Amino acid sequence: MKQIVLKQPGEFFTHDIAEPKPCVDMALVQVKSIGVCGTDLHAFAGRQPFFEYPRVLGHELGVEVLNAPDGCGVVAGDLCAVEPYLACGDCHSCRLGRSNCCESLKVLGVHVDGGMQKFLSVDPKLLFKSSDLTVDQLALVETLGIGANAVKRADIQAGQSVLIVGAGPIGLAVLQFALANGADVHMLDISASRLEFAESMGAKVTTDVGSDRFEVVFDATGNKGAMEKSFELVHFAGKLVLVGLIQGDISFHDPTFHRREMTLLSSRNSYGMFPEIISKIENGAINTAPWINHRLSLAGVESEFKNLRDVPNLIKAVIEVE
Description:
The protein contains ten helices and 17 strands. A hairpin with a 2-residue loop joins strand 1 and strand 2 (11-16). It is 24% helix and 28% strand. With 322 residues, it is an alpha/beta fold. It has two domains: 2-140 and 291-320, Medium-chain alcohol dehydrogenases, catalytic domain (Quinone Oxidoreductase, Chain A, domain 1, Alpha-Beta Complex); 147-266, Rossmann fold (3-Layer(aba) Sandwich). It is globular and about 60 Å long. The mean pLDDT is 96. Strands 3, 4, 5, 8, 9, 16 and 17 form a seven-stranded mixed β-sheet that branches. Strands 12-11-10-13-14-15 form a six-stranded parallel β-sheet, with helices on both faces.
């Protein structure tokens, strides 16, 4: 089968490898849809923390089960989302039930080879099925999980004033779950097209919040300047959640931080939330219909991936695997 490998920043290559064989404790799946996220784009550009080359990208996956161990919860023909987080199960975080920050966490498509290939062997406990969702919708579950976990970390309450800085896919995922919790959600970005999209999803949008402050601020930019400025946007006794990350340090004005008695939180991945997210998509509480506005084939990755940042008004690209 064909496998697409990111050899080094800016360079993919395609090669043939043997198809994986069914084994006793693993499920064999056919990859159908791969979401492209900021992690993939940063890895291609050489700016992704915790990343080593060469690597097979692809961690947002909608798959079809071909073969699975008896009694594992999925059977051949099931369409599933893949939770790409490989936790050890034994470290302090895992024992606390916080496997998303496992001390030796590995992520498919980031630390170990992922889904840019037709077939993949997956631990069945990482497969979450739906009889209603398409493979494209299932490929979006991981991205939505980033937003769901951030909102959970912030403990968003109905009526709270919320600002999301950055209207990319992660910011939009935060938006959907903050709205689902009943928050009064504002979104800040410099892109008119992205703000227009966020407004269509229910956000109050702006390119400048002026002197306004918010009870909860989410930074989803992964931009040092924006992350540091976000500290100034948090109300007294408010919370700042850093969802985006950079490969470096950030700083803030400590007297402001203390005077307002702010709470600073980070949010990494998600854990145990895939069933809830799938249910919310199935019942219409989360709408994935507007997200995907660009497609490419697996065979086209080597030549077309480099152009994704130039796609007008790109929200979410998916790679179709035939």
